[in-house]
């Protein structure tokens, strides 16, 4: 897993491994952008690479729910990644008939993205399916997720949550700032090599 804090700017390239490029196959990747608060927009860039084997994994006692803890905490496991802002980023797998209740601070906004399968979300048990995003109402301190007992496959999903910044957002291409003037400065910094370069 790669966790990049762009801050004042970083140039990067995402290329599959040589073996995958040569042999092909199915590649499943998720890229999540977490906006920094205005006060942190120009901090020094930072890159963290966490090998898959080092991402904390936890299970319920009966093994019906497994979680990979990318950011935050779940089922007694805590993430090893350091985030600039407090967020929850959890990869859950629920076997048929399994359910979970995950604590989420009431000031957070939360959503789930269904990677595979179909499940029931929230107290209203709204259905969410493969490729859909489910928004949770900000009306409690936990979210409920279930994979129905009659499901024919596991439910695989990401649960993401964080504190809303309540700041203006201006974006252009890969740049996310708070004002148009800041966007123009970011473009100028990029064009003039102040964000680094990719060496091939």
From TrEMBL:
Span of domain Pirin C-terminal: 89-196
Residue ranges annotated for the Pirin N-terminal domain, each copy included: 1-34
Pfam families in UniProt: Pirin, Pirin_C
Recorded superkingdom: Bacteria
CDD domains: cupin_pirin_C
Family from the record: Belongs to the pirin family.
Protein's UniProt name: Pirin family protein
Lineage, highest ranks first: Bacteria, Bacillati, Cyanobacteriota, Cyanophyceae, Oculatellales
């Amino acid at each position: 897993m790669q966790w990049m804090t762009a801050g004042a700017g970083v140039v990067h390239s995402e290329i599959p491994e040589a073996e995958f490029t040569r042999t092909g196959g199915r590649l499943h990747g998720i890229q999540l952008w977490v906006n920094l608060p205005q006060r942190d927009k120009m901090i020094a860039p930072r890159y963290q690479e966490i090998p898959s084997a080092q991402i904390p994994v936890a299970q319920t006692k009966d093994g019906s729910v497994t979680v990979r803890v990318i950011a935050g905490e779940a089922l007694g496991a805590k993430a090893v990644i350091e985030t600039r802002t407090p967020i929850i980023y959890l990869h859950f797998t629920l076997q048929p008939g399994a359910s979970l209740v995950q604590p989420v601070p009431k000031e957070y906004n939360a959503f789930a993205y269904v990677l595979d399968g179909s499940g029931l979300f929230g107290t209203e048990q709204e259905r969410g399916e493969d490729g859909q995003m489910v928004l949770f109402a900000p009306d409690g301190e936990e979210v409920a997720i279930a994979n129905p007992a009659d499901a024919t496959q596991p439910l695989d999903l990401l649960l993401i949550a964080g504190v809303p910044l309540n700041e203006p957002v201006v974006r252009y291409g890969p740049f996310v700032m708070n004002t148009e003037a800041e966007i123009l400065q970011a473009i100028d910094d990029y064009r003039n090599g102040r964000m680094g370069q990719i060496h091939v």
